[in-house]
Write a structure and sequence with these properties.
Elements lengths: L3 H10 L5 H9 L9 E7 L3 H19 L6 E7 L2 H9 L5 E4 L1 H11 L2 E6 L6 E2 L1 E6 L14 E4 L5 H13 L3 E4 L11 E6 L4 H9 L5 E5 H5 L3 H5 L1 E6 L3 E2 L1 E5 L5 H4 L2
Parallel strand pairs: 1-2, 1-3, 7-9, 7-10, 8-9
Antiparallel strand pairs: 3-13, 4-13, 5-12, 6-10, 6-11
């Protein structure tokens, strides 16, 4: 999102983001109202780092929306999709940026509207891969019946929603397990979560604690070459947009057509 062209495109679409503050920006400034504040919502495991990385961008957009001066930008962090839903419902954010699954959950529950696809880390789209240890003897998804799979977390697009959807579409029965020691029936695939830690997903597969794991193709490509060499891909999902930008449902409909 750092290129001038991406910024210009987003600014033009975000001209509809000022919600109640936009009306006050012109009519209220003379009355001594505080300057408008444009607020971005995001989900993050490291809030401080995420705020620092995006605050200059939000301030930039705020200055473009309110060229009269004084406009400010802010970033609010949510730990889960449910928390992001709450921020939207309470009117505490004007727009948010998230992956496909979280965007679907939030927009479905709040009425927020999709605006843009966003490139993230140099990628416009990505896919999920389901992988196993190379020396495990597993070579396709049918080999996973009666075994345990580790997913990243329940809010992850590439680490849960995409691979789960693929397995369900292919007719597999999935059952969440409370621990590695839980029994897995012969006709099902058991799964548990690594609590948002991609490294644990890979480690648990390499250590033999889980038969297979799932993460993004970018995450797999970023592994140390020696660790990557110890893994074999069993299946890939279709590619989906890497990141999406959505706007609060409080935005007037006329601005959505801007």
């Amino acid at each position: 999102m750092g290129s001038p062209s991406c910024r210009r495109a987003l600014v033009s679409c975000l001209a509809l983001l000022s919600v109640a503050a936009a009306g006050r920006a012109h009519a209220g400034s003379a009355a001594g109202n505080p300057p408008p504040v444009l607020t971005l919502g995001m989900m993050a495991e490291m809030p401080g780092e995420t705020v620092e990385r995006h605050i200059d961008f939000v301030r930039y957009v705020a200055r473009k929306l309110f060229p009269g001066g004084g406009a400010q930008g802010a970033v609010r962090i949510a730990a889960t999709p449910d928390a992001l839903v709450k921020l939207v419902d309470e009117g505490r954010i004007h727009f948010y940026m998230e992956s496909l699954y979280a965007t679907y959950v939030v927009n479905e529950r709040t009425g927020a509207r999709l605006l843009l696809r966003r490139w993230k880390k140099g990628r416009g789209e990505y896919r999920s891969v389901i992988f196993a240890r190379r020396d495990s003897g597993l070579r396709d998804l049918d080999n996973l019946r009666g075994k345990l799979v580790v997913f990243e977390d329940a809010g992850s697009t590439s680490g849960y929603a995409l691979p789960r959807s693929l397995l369900v579409r292919k007719g597999f029965v999935l059952d969440e397990k409370p621990s590695f020691d839980a029994a897995v029936a012969a006709g099902e695939i058991g799964y548990l979560f690594a609590h948002g830690d991609e490294e644990n997903v890979v480690n648990w597969v390499l250590l033999g604690r889980a038969a297979a794991g799932a993460l993004s193709d970018a995450g797999l490509d970023a592994l140390d070459p020696r660790r990557r060499a110890g893994l074999v891909v069993l299946a890939e999902t279709q590619a989906v947009p890497r990141h999406l930008v959505s706007v609060s449902p409080a935005v007037p409909p006329i601005w959505r057509r801007a």
